[in-house]
Design goal:
Helices cover about 50% and strands about 20% of the residues. The chain has eleven helices and twelve strands. It has helices spanning about 5-30, 45-60, 75-90, 100-110, 135-150, 165-180, 195-210, 225-235, 250-260, 270-285, 310-320; strands spanning about 35-40, 65-70, 90-95, 115-120, 130-135, 155-160, 185-190, 215-220, 240-245, 265, 295-300, 300-305. The strands form two sheets. The protein has a six-stranded parallel β-sheet with strand order 2-1-3-4-5-11, sandwiched between helices. Helix 2 runs parallel beside helix 10 and helix 3 runs parallel beside helix 4 (about 100-110). It is globular.
Length: about 325
């Protein structure tokens, strides 16, 4: 055979070899089981949970671990995400349920086809395997104690949350009401915004006008306290209207540092992500020993105030490092 002919035959052989390598790689990728965590909103809270997922991914490279951010913050939006994941044939799903009473049918459909757990906001009436997250009634009581501490002589307060359809919202409000019962702290109302930031801000501005004697505002989902912070400062009422928050948005921590915000109750979203992924993997491998008798794996909350905000902020920066 002459030289040129050799080259003509060699090229397709190399191409075939390359195609085989690519096909093998794709086949291996397709063989990996996928685990997904579905959020209830887009927020820094879930970015931190995503870091926990990344740790789980490093420990279990034979799985694909994904964070699915639901931008709408609605049950319909979550339903679409779940249907898409089922079509993809994912092996396990963890979800922060937006509207538990109306999501049961969809969740049970998911639970029949894959390993399903809930995190952050539960749906105990569904066939989910377990809940991983906060005891939200206890966390609400914790926030209520902070409210009483901020208002030793009582006063009017308003609460803000995305939707009262979510278990975590109802339970946090319940806990706060339990904590302030029998005191001079008066809850004027709970204002919802359906995870519409413009509506949330308008709610806060309206409250500051409608109740000129309002003493304290509290946001119960992660994005609301920063918006309260902005609204109170814009109204020239920083320091006059107290703020107690929930979760660890950067502006919330900044507000605690500068004295505009009294304190915030923080969860551990990093653990939510990590424990969701690793415990789904355990279940897929036949190990259900991690599931408590009441099917609730509670991750404790803590209070961040001026005394520990610097330390906590530094810890958070480490978690968020890429």
């Amino acid at each position: 055979m002459n030289g040129p002919m050799k080259k003509l035959l060699t090229v397709p052989l190399i191409a075939t070899a390359a195609a085989l390598v690519m096909a093998t790689g794709m086949a291996e990728a397709q063989q990996k089981k996928t685990i997904a965590l579905v959020t209830n909103v887009a927020a820094d809270f879930w970015t931190i949970a995503g870091r926990g997922l990344e740790k789980a991914q490093k420990e279990h490279p034979d799985y694909n671990v994904e964070l699915i951010v639901t931008n709408e913050g609605t049950a319909a939006g979550q339903r679409r995400e779940l249907d898409d994941l089922l079509v993809r044939g994912v092996a396990g799903i963890s979800i922060s349920v937006d509207d538990a009473p109306h999501a049961t049918e969809e969740l049970n459909k998911v639970a029949a086809k894959t390993v399903l757990i809930t995190t952050d906001s539960d749906a105990p009436q569904s066939n989910r395997l377990a809940y991983i997250g906060t005891d939200n009634v206890s966390a609400g009581r914790q926030a209520g104690e902070e409210i009483k501490k901020a208002l030793p002589n009582g006063g009017k307060i308003a609460l803000f949350v995305g939707t009262m359809d979510a278990d975590n919202a109802r339970e946090r409000v319940q806990g706060i009401k339990e904590a302030i019962a029998g005191t001079k702290v008066e809850l004027v109302d709970v204002f919802t915004d359906q995870v519409d930031f413009a509506k949330a801000k308008a709610n806060m501005e309206n409250v500051l006008v409608k109740y000129p004697d309002i003493a304290l505002l509290s946001g119960l989902w992660s994005y609301e306290t920063p918006l309260i912070y902005d609204a109170v400062k814009a109204a020239g009422k920083a320091g006059k209207v107290k703020i107690v928050g929930f979760d660890e948005d950067q502006r919330t921590l900044r507000g605690i540092s500068d004295g505009t915000i009294e304190s915030t109750v923080v969860q551990q979203p990093y653990e939510f992500g990590y424990l969701s992924a690793t415990n789904i993997i355990k279940t897929l491998n036949g190990d259900k020993s991690w599931i408590p008798a009441d099917r609730k794996l509670i991750v404790p909350t803590k209070v961040i105030s001026k005394s520990n905000v610097a330390e906590f902020t530094a810890h958070l920066k480490e978690l968020l490092k890429k």
